[in-house]
Give the backbone structure.
Amino acid sequence: MAIFSAKQAGQATSLPRHVAVIMDGNGRWATRRGLPRTAGHKAGAETFRTIATYCRDLGLEYLTVYAFSTENWKRPKAEVDAIMSLLDQYLHESIEKMARDRIRLRFLGDTTVLSPKLRQLIAETDEITRHIEGFQANVCLNYGGRDEIVRAARQFARECVAGQRSPDELTEATFPSYLWSAGIPDPELLIRPGGELRISNYLLWQIAYSEIYVTDTLWPDFDAGALDEALAWYQTRDRRFGGLSGKK
Ligand code: FPP
């Protein structure tokens, strides 16, 4: 199925502005090859680089990936350490590349509990890429959808107690400014490689009206062609937002 790029077709609505991805299947990818699970995460980090660059080339504005959830701390320490050191290594290597490739990298989630070294790298990445406009890749790190909503509610409550806000000021339009994703439009398309039919506490507020595409392809095997298929599927969707179809 061919995709219409916004640039080619001159139709701003033909492609999503924002695609979110649950990068699942790294462990299975590695196990099927007789490799340690960490090899799957390493391959998954490479796929992230490839897909981020491809999204930018297609003219998308945002890609948001789930790199580490608030629940992933339950994994064996060796696997958690391996993912953290991969992020460390990845950021080291990619800060300059990202800037050169015109990709702004942002991190969503509570990064305060990460190692000082990783926090320093995150701050540097943010600093070096913050001026880049056009394409932004968001990496969800120590991120949980429920945690994000609770934190937002707590912050708003604090502002009420301090007399800066009144409860009636909280609306569907103002609440998102308290989320990690403040200022980022909701994803129109959520992609889940690896075949699982669940949301896994990901972007719970933001995906209220996202189209959800699940593929059995494992994340390390997810390439430009797989993204083309997901986007072509998205372009066949009739997005009604609770109303009636524009075509009927
Ligand atoms: C889920 O697959 C994947 C993760 C929990 C980790 C994802 C992390 C990376 C790809 C590395 C760093 C990321 C960036 C952006 C540089 P799984 O392990 O649950 O796979 P399985 O379902 O096959 O076991």
